[in-house]
Amino acid sequence: MTKKFGFTLAEVLITLGIIGVVAAMTMPTLLNSTNGAQYRTAYKKALSVLSQAVVLNVALDDYDLSQTNANDDGATDEASVYALFMNRMNVVKTADANSSEDWGASGVDTVKFGSGATDNYTLFFNDGITFTFPKATAGCTAGNATVTESICKGVIDVNGAKNPNKLVTCDGTTNSWNSAVDDCTVTNPTDMYPVKFYDQSVLPATDAAEAVLYGGK
Question: Can you tell me where the transmembrane regions are (predicted)?
Fold first, then answer.
């Protein structure tokens, strides 16, 4: 008579329980890593397309960011940062504010959504990325011997109004626009990136944003 071997119900349940515990411990890390990679890729893409838009505008309308004027009425027939990106990118919606969001990272002058957002423009692109900057932004230039420096700043959100709506920071630090961090590393990139722009350049504005751009992976 052949004797058959198999697992008992208790053994199966114990095995499933162990698998469940291991999955519960590893899934959050895996998801964070996946989201971080997506945020990093989207951020690099956003910087690239914004820079290309400036170069294209120079070719077509013969002005770059250093030659822009302030634009408080949303007109697209004048030389402004607003008009430049509206005319050269696929903008599906614009906003002065979004009361459903409340982003108030210290030291950033509420440049995105929240209490001070009525002083800013937010451009929503067709790929889900948003770009926010103050309405008063004008004459964005790095400066030289004859031109006063006026580097402009804004925020890229790679997934728009969706959460987490969190400013990227160096590991072990809190939100800060201006502080310098030695050997900044960003293990888990988030969705919001401060940028500075002038002349024909759009670049990271903080150590953390720079670390994500040049950190590989």
Answer: 12-31
Q: Cis omega (within 30 of 0) on the bond before 194?
A: no
pTM reported for the whole predicted model: 0.77
Cβ neighbours, 10 Å, residue 202: 25
For 12-68, how does the pLDDT look when each residue is reduced to its tens digit (9 = 90+)? Answer: 778 777 777 776 666 565 555 567 889 999 999 999 999 999 999 999 999 999 999
Find where tokens 């002058």 sit.
Answer: 109
How far apart CA 38 and CA 156 sit, in angstroms, is 14
Distances in whole angstroms, Cα of residue 178 to Cα of each of 153, 194, 195, 206:
12, 10, 12, 7
Structure tokens at 26: 């590893």
Q: Which of 195, 191, 190 is nearest to 206 (CA)?
A: 195
Are 67 and 214 contacting, i.e. CB atoms less than 8 angstroms apart?
no
Q: What is the Cα–Cα distance from 36 to 146, expressed in whole angstroms?
A: 42
Task: Report d(CA 169, CA 189) in Å as an integer.
Answer: 8
Torsion angle of the four alpha carbons 80, 92, 131, 47, in this order, in degrees rounded to the nearest 10: -90
**Number of other CB atoms surrounding residue 214 within 10 Å:** 9
Measured between alpha carbons, how far is 217 from 46 in angstroms, rounded to an integer? 17
